[in-house]
Structure formats: structure tokens, C-alpha cells
Amino acid sequence: MTSKGLLLHEVGLRDGLQMESQVVPLEKKAAWLSGLLESGMDIIQVGSFVHPVKVPQMADTDELFRRFTAHKKPRAILSGLVLNEKGLERGLACGVEMFCLGASASETHSLKNTGMGTDEAVTRIIGAAKAAVAAGKKVQLSVQSAFGCGFEGLISEERVLKIVRAYVEAGLRNISLADTAGHAHPAQVERLFGAVLALDPGIECACHFHNTYGLGMANMFAALRAGVSSFETSFAGLGGCPFTKVAAGNVATEDFVHVLQLEGLRKDVSLDRLLAVARDAAAHFERDMQGFVYKTGPIRTQTAV
Amino acid sequence: MTSKGLLLHEVGLRDGLQMESQVVPLEKKAAWLSGLLESGMDIIQVGSFVHPVKVPQMADTDELFRRFTAHKKPRAILSGLVLNEKGLERGLACGVEMFCLGASASETHSLKNTGMGTDEAVTRIIGAAKAAVAAGKKVQLSVQSAFGCGFEGLISEERVLKIVRAYVEAGLRNISLADTAGHAHPAQVERLFGAVLALDPGIECACHFHNTYGLGMANMFAALRAGVSSFETSFAGLGGCPFTKVAAGNVATEDFVHVLQLEGLRKDVSLDRLLAVARDAAAHFERDMQGFVYKTGPIRTQTAV
User: Fold this and answer.
1) What is the ipTM of this complex?
2) Is residue B302 part of a domain?
3) Of A79, A279, A281, B243, which is the most exposed, with the fewest CB atoms less than 10 Å away?
């Protein structure tokens, strides 16, 4: 598939839940995290370190980390999203193993999200990332709105590559391109990841797609062909806005693992455990989630007649 | 893309509506067909010629054809599905230009659907197809359940290729592989279409995917890469069973045209007209349909800042 292997990075507890206005109790988050750990996912994003007043859903991120890191090394790498130095401090204090940081390629999105333009945000993020590396932690740097922006429309590939070059020049080569708005399409995905991977042989790419226009899964396969090695997904397809009919969630983890296994890949992951987590999430939120396979069950693939 | 071009075949009025228990009035079908014709689709399947008692939804297929063929040549090729010689007679009498016929690669599915095993069904279908060709009509022959079967599970590729060889030996080279159960996955799609196209340089392939497990769009792109030249889709993603939460519809026509246009293809088709038909269908059925773009609107792709 890719020479670098294929890593599964679960981000539902962060990118999924942050869109949910109803705060999920800590015990429920812990139960889902346990299920995800048991499934055999490689990396699990536990939450983000943002101001609890701004995002109440993430107020217990530190405590959730501590529960799973205080007494033993967890089975997966536990990642946390941080926006700044303050978040980094909190993450270092509670056992984060992999720090995810990012800047938006859309100037408008960057200003709305952080109050800083892209250039300033990139500089600041690189500073925090270097501090995390100095503390012995893994780091992943993302470019948000890499494939288009709800505010600005098309984002030029040169804007994205400029940010990636800044990361690489700082020695940071674990790079995620995030399709924040769901605008990516397969030819663009192959082209842009191809261009990023061509910058430096040490780069490892991750992808993050939203399914706003029904293209999430097709884009995952385009990324796979382009040589992307880490795939970010959310259990049950969490991540869309529950108050509209627009299905803007992430690609569902269990749907992606299901098709990978049809293709003979990652049979080490427990699809049953992932389906159990997705079904429990659907029961918790009492609504139809974006995932498919938690509703249908997996395809029966017994030997042909 | 492919040397043979890329044809769009709308099948919602047949494969979509046949799943709907509520019979759609003829005037409504005619309005949707008019919109689809104005959009610039290449081929539009108007209905099937089955016994009206068996499928009441299709009872007015002959009349719908006559409305659009009696006075002038329609802008698109109008296709009709026939199961047997009786259907062929009806189709020839009401102006069908392209006959679609098929047999299932799953013995169980074939028996349940037609009362005949696969071999007998193939022989009979080839006979009817030759009669259509003799009458000066276009013909497309499909293999149903080509990628897996709800009853039998996996279907061996050799079973599919055996049917295709029988078609080709009869001089019938317009071949559709239908993923009736939605079991197809991208690597399988590329492999099987590659094997079919390798059988004879005169073969033109069509594909037909259901989105049961969320893989429809990814499979369309796999088919495009494999050299498939005709793509079957349903407006609004019609085709799933409306009485379950399982989203087993076809890939939505307007979603596919939307992404093709993002990729610079088929800009001659009016996405706006397709979206209007999909929105009218959602209003008619008073439910959330499987398509995405009729809800979100298309991606704004103005020049990058």
C-alpha cells in the first residue's frame, strides 16, 4: 500500500465532539476511549486544550488524559490538539504523547479562528511544536483548509506548500492536510499530497477529510494512492453539525476500517469493537449518525459458491 | 480521462422509483424526465417493462416513453430495462432507443429474481438482446451482483467473466457491471473492470454502484481509473429502501456531476437543473434523500485569494 504503512488516527473525541453542543459526560467519553483502545487503533485523539469557557465540551480533556496515562502506558498513542503555548503546558502536564498543532491556509479562516493571520499563526505553531519536540514528544503539524475554504473558496496549492515548507525547514516532517470545509476532490488530493511528499523524502503525510459533499471516502482512497500514511477518522462519522441536514462529519472510522479489511488491509483492528462504540454513540445522541456500517453491519464475505 | 469519453446514464426513474412503494404520478415522472433531459444527461432510463401487477410503479413506462418519443427525437438516448421477449416487444412499440438487459452472477439472486438459474438467464437475455440489435436498437447487457451478493456473499470473478464472455461471443460488447448489493470496494472494482476490458478491445464498460456501505463514490472513481466509460446514477440518490435506515441508494447523479465538474469534466451538464430535480424529488417524497449536494449546494470555487 505505502512503504510507510497505514496508520489509523481516531479523532472523534476531539473533532467530533467539539461540534456537539450537548456536553458528553466524562464517564461516557472514557467508555468510548476504552472501546477505541481495545479496537487496536494506532493513534487516538483524546481532546483539545482550549479555554473551557470557549469550548465546554473539551473542559475535561486533561482529566481524561490522566485517567488513561497515569498508571500504565496506553495501547495506542494518545494525541491532543493544542492551539498555543498554554495548551502545550497543559498537555505536557497530563501525559499527551503526540501533540497536534495547525495553521489555516485560509487567511480569513485563520483570522476568525485564532485572531492571527496565516504567517503569524505558522510562526507561533512552529515555536510550540519545537518546544514539544524538545520535551521528547511526537508532533504532527497540520494545514487546515488545505483544499478550499467556506469563506475564501479555492485555496491555491502554493499557499499550502508555503506553510508545509516552513514546517519542514523547522525540522517538522509529520504533516497533516485537513479538508476543513469538505471541498477536496480526488484529483486535487492526489496532486497536493504528491506535491507535499515531493518536497522532502522524510515527510510523512496524514489526511483529514469531511464528508460535506459526499466525497470523504473517495478522497481517502485518493490519499492512499498518493502515499499518505496516516488517516484521520471519527467513530460514527461524528463531526458534522447536528442542527442542520448537512452531513459534514468526518469519514466514519468503522466505515474506513470495514473497507480496508475488504481490501485485505488492517485485519488486526477489531471492527466489532469499533461498531460497538459507533452504536453506543448513536444511542447516546439519539440520532441517525453519518456512518453507514454501524447501521448495516459489515458485508458478509464468505467464500463464493 | 478515458479514451472513450465519459457517458452519464441516469437511472433514477427506473432503479430509484422501483424501490418506492408510493406510486409516483405520471405527470411528476414526466416533469423529472423533462428536467433530466434539459440538464444534458447522455442517457436516461425511463422505466422497465415488467408486469404492472408485479411492479405497479412501472405500469406507465410505455406511456412515459411515448410522450417523449412520439413527436420528436429526444435530446438524450432514452433507455428501458427489459427482462424478457414480452418486454422487448413493448419497448420496441413505444420508442425505446437503448435496451438494457441483464443476468445475475449469483445463482440464488437469479433464481429469486427470474425463476431461472444464471446460465439459462444468460441464454435468454442474449436472445432478446440480439432481437433488439436486429431491430436497429442499442443494447447494454449487465451482470448483476457482480461484486457480491446479499444471499451468497462473495461472487468469484470467474463467474462474472464467464457471463461477460458469453455476451462478447454473441457480439454484444456494451457491458455494465452492477453492484446490486453495494458490496464492491475500490481495489475489486479496478481489478474486475480491468479483467473485463482486457477480454476484447471493442468492449465498452458501464458501472452501477449502490451506496449501502458508503463506498459508492469511491467505487465510481475506481471505475473511472479502470477505463469504464459509462456511469449509472440516480437523481437525489434514489434507490434505497425508504423503510429502513439503511442508505442503499445509487450514487446521486448531482453529487457525481458536481465532483466531475470540480475535476474539470463534463462542464456541459447543467448541475443547476439536476439539483432542481433532486430538490423536487425530496419535496415529493417528504424525506431526507441520500444525495449530499442538493442539501448543501455546490462548492463555491471562485479564484483563490
Assistant:
1) 0.94
2) no
3) B243
Question: How many C-beta atoms lie closer than 10 Å to residue A115's C-beta?
Answer: 9
Secondary structure of residue B46 in the 3-state scheme? strand
Angle made by CA atoms A137, A138, A140, in degrees to the nearest 5 = 135
How many Å apart are CA B20 and CA B57, to the nearest integer?
8
Q: Which tens digits make up the pLDDT trace of B235-273? A: 999 987 655 556 689 999 999 999 999 999 999 999 999
Rounded Cα distance between A117 and A107, Å, is: 6
pLDDT recorded at residue B241: 62
Q: Is-contact B70 B101, C-beta < 8 A? A: no
Task: Compute φ and ψ for B14, nearest 5 degrees.
Answer: -110, -70
Residue (of A37, A89, A88) closest to A67 by Cα position: A37
Given this model, what pLDDT does residue A74 score? Answer: 84
- The answer to whether residue B301 sits within a structural domain is no
User: Distance between CA B104 and CA B177 in Å, rounded?
Assistant: 10
Where would I find the beta strands (DSSP E) of chain B? Answer: 7-10, 43-49, 77-82, 98-104, 138-144, 174-179, 204-209, 230-233
Backbone phi and psi for residue A188, each to the nearest 5 degrees, phi listed first: -65, -40
Q: Is residue B241 part of a domain?
A: yes
Residue of B nearest to A265 (CA): B187
**Alpha helices in chain A, H assignment, sequence order:** 26-39, 61-69, 85-94, 107-114, 118-134, 157-169, 186-197, 216-226, 253-262, 271-285, 293-296
For residue B9, the surrounding DSSP H or E stretch is strand B7-10
Give the structural domain span for B87. 7-296
Closest chain B C-alpha to A296 CA, distance in angstroms: 6
Whether A263 sits inside 8 A of B152 (CB atoms) is no
Residue B44 lies in a domain: yes
Q: What 3-state DSSP class applies to B60?
A: coil
Q: In the structure, how many helices (H) and strands (E) does chain A have?
A: 11, 8
**What tens digit of pLDDT does each residue of A236-254 get?**
999 876 555 566 899 999 9
Whole-number Å distance between alpha carbons of A89 and B252: 47
Does B261 contact chain A (CB < 8 Å)? no
Reading the block at residue A57, the C-alpha cell is: 465540551
Which chain B positions have a beta carbon within 8 Å of A155's beta carbon?
A: 304
Q: How many domains does chain A have?
A: 1
Residues of A belonging to the active site: 241
Catalytic center residues of B: 241
d(CA B10, CA B78): 10
Q: Specify the residue for cell string 453491519.
A: A297
Task: For residue A61, give every residue at least 6 positions away whose Cβ sits within 8 Å of its Cβ, in sequence order, or none.
Answer: A46, A47, A48, A49, A80, A90, A94
Spans in chain A with pLDDT lower than 50: 1-4, 302-305
Q: Which residues pair with A80 in a beta bridge?
A: A47, A99
CATH number at residue A96: 3.20.20.70
